[in-house]
Amino acid sequence: MKLAVVGATGLVGQEILNVIEERNLPFDELYLVASEKSVGQPITFKGKAYEIKSIDEVCKLAPDIAIFSAGGNTSLAWAPRYAEMGTIVIDNSSAWRMDPAKKLIVPEINGHELTIDDRIIANPNCSTIQMVMVLAPLHVKYKLKRVVVSTYQSVTGTGKDAVQQLMDERKNVAGTKVYPHPIDMNALPHIDVFLDNGYTKEEMKMVNETRKILGDQAIGVTSTTVRVPTIGGHAEAVNAEFYHDFTCSEIRSILANTPGVIVQDDPKNNVYPMPINAKGRDEVFVGRIRRDESQPNTVNLWIVADNLRKGAATNAVQIAEFMLEKSLVY
Is the pTM above the cut of 0.85? Predict the structure, then answer.
């Protein structure tokens, strides 16, 4: 079993290594890939020193599984080459998510769609993953009609430089700026680039990916995504309208029995999900479960998850585990 991590020095790449170690993903050989300037540098993993290799060198070594977290351009250029070598590429960028020939997978929801022929598998957007983890079981029971979501997304979703910008601003230190405005003590309704329809690319990811993962193009989805100065994870206010009625106690029961979801819903005792408590956790947390009293069959939900974990690294490693468990690696 030859395993590669492409983008091993980034925030998500480092978290992928943490998750591989925690979940004891099996491998006989591990190849760590980063940019050309990092090639030859050592990374210590599980007490052993590994030398950073180039993406070309590792491609020739034909790993069985390669988890990519190195950006869309790298994935577009190299994922097909790895796939030609027989490698299963699990890609964390947006490059392949909406390709009709590629699966967009959250294992708990649609892992059953994977086959031995899938050589490039797309890992969904972090904000989409945590939302569909909660909505999927409710969609099965009540059938989703429309979703309105507003996100409050951590600077960790942008990367190391964004975290540094926040820390620099907090200390009143001049440094590199990755956002067009200050992020400390601020909120930016601007994640990714703006599109011709007035939405950002991040907002349209949530629209399109939700429909694809849930297998229902008729679901109405609208999104506003906001960057906030938090570290622990992303939070979302979700308003979900169903075709069939529900009770909030039913919804709590369904979600409490959904693998990977934890209900924290005791507002009278100040119990509700928060990014500071989600940091480093693999679960998706949901609370503030209450009926929307302005229209029928509609519920409000507050959903929080560590975007570097279930929103990225953990989900990717779970896909690898699924492929191994189902003997879909050759």
Answer: yes
